[in-house]
Amino acid sequence: MTPADHRRQAASIATYLAQFERTDQPGTTASDDRPGYADLPDTDRDRRHHDYLLAMELAQTTALTDEDVHALDQLRRRYGFQ
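Request: output the structure for the sequence above.
Response:
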């Protein structure tokens, strides 16, 4: 896989995970604290949020390290992007 392929994969995973983001933003006074798509336990929501941020970072990286490629492989497996 080329670096561009890895970035596209990361962007696809980030797009998928975006549906699980909360509808409010941390630090705001919005009264809507429900998840954007599915009612998930907090631990699952937190994991998806962390993975979303990681996928966004990987999608924007110009040079991926071996650790980045490994992290992307884990994300692909975790969310069924094989």
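The helical segments are 3-18, 42-60, 66-78.
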